[in-house]
Write a structure and sequence with these properties.
The protein is mostly helical. It has 2 domains: 1-30; 32-92. It contains 4 helices and no strands. It starts with a helix and ends in a 19-residue tail after the last helix.
Length: 102
């Protein structure tokens, strides 16, 4: 009984009520409430993951570019496979897979 009366006395204090209302407002009704902050944190983690993925892809692309600029054999292989280029005295035969239904 004494605890209950002490609790009610504290709750009737205007400063306590103000602090409780403020905390509830900040946690649930504010523009940057708790749930919004949680969603933003999750989105930030996804963006950091994608950033690391794209940094690795950029490094691989730069390596491939250096190889293409410095090694003529790789450049010739790329030209033959992707663009069907040939030397002057060669013929190209394209073989397609008839079982592939893409």
């Amino acid at each position: 009984m004494i605890r209950l009366s002490l609790f009610l006395k504290i709750l009737k204090n205007k400063y306590t009520i103000t602090i409780i209302v403020f905390v509830i407002w900040i946690l649930f009704f504010d523009r940057n409430d708790l749930f919004t902050q949680w969603d933003r944190k999750q989105e930030l983690q996804k963006l950091e993951t994608s950033t690391s993925f794209y940094e690795k892809e950029i490094a691989n692309t730069r390596k491939d570019l250096m190889d293409l600029n410095n090694k003529p054999a790789i450049l010739e292989k790329l030209a033959r496979e992707n663009f069907y280029l040939k030397r002057t005295n060669e013929d190209i035969f394209l073989v397609t897979d008839s079982n592939n239904k893409n």
